[in-house]
Amino acid sequence: MKFKNLYLGLIASVFLFASCSSDDNTIIDTPLGAYDNGVLILNEGNFKTPNASVSYISNDLTTSQNNIFAVVNPTKVLGDVAQSLSFSDDKAFIVVNNSNEVEVVNRYTFQSLGTITEKLENPRYSVVLNNKLYVTNALSNAVTVYDAKTYAYSNSISVEKTVEKIVVANNKLYVMNGAYGYGNEVTVIDPSTNQVLTTITVEDGINSIEEKNGSVYVMCGNKDNSKLYKINTNTDTATSIESTTLKYVSNMDIDGDKIYYTQEGSVYAMDLNAATFSTTPIFTNTYVQYSTFYGFGVINGKIYSGNANGFTQDGIVTIYSSTGTVLKTLTVGIAPNSFYSNN
Description:
Largest sheet: 4 strands, antiparallel
Structural class: mainly beta
Strand order of the largest sheet: 3-2-1-28
Strand content: over 45%
Number of helices: 2
Number of strands: 28
């Protein structure tokens, strides 16, 4: 409860003075026709204001468009705080946090297909496994389950602790029990029985979780150290490496055989099976808390950085090469928080 109240208070204070800004003058006002072969950028919008949006940029960085949900669906509103997105076949499930909805669209045309609302209580992240959609809920501390084809609610999995980012590995669900610098556990769920199998203890400050080659990687960072855990999904045991030089490491993403991560305004990379953290940055930006690297992702060798711009105006996305050269800068929606390959 203490974490939940702090989180809600922090978000409220950050967004209290935020205001809507006008659309970028370069936005195309007709659909592009297809939004595949590119990257989707999720923009939260202002808290308590239904101005969440999605932007698109092609893989070759030559074509982009803002507000693609609104452009394709002019009579609908995406909602209040677009938190995260997951895919299943030709569908994209957009978790809209403060609206307590999951908006379903065709991932390539962005045509609206439906809206899920049942049993959602401050939804955060989602994943699809075996035609079932699993959504984490901050207020109920539960994972809600839906048919990924009909969108019908089927079950709730009570975790009774913070549930945040969620990934699939070895036909199991791995759920972060913490966020925003709090938490030190990962819950493992058997989706065939909707039961918790075990809880894995990690370092305090859990902030990122990724699946790669059947293993689950977890990043933790705090005032004393940073640790990267690799979970063996056959035994659900973990090994780790540690850095006491880099503290508060966050924003881990995996691309190919590299693990990328940030520490304040710097981006680093290390090999997937590295025995030590790299402490030499690829590049460094001026760091502004709650703005710099508010969004972060690495896709096909390109590093995507989302700057929330103080939540008072449209966000800025900068795309870098793997060596830190700026390839493209875009003005997008308010608070760009994540990037998704849509190929």
